[in-house]
Amino acid sequence: MKARHSAHCVEGAEETVNELRAALAKAGITLPSLGLDPVSLAREAPCPLVELGRCSVETARRLAAVLR
Question: pTM to 2 decimals?
Answer without folding.
Answer: 0.82
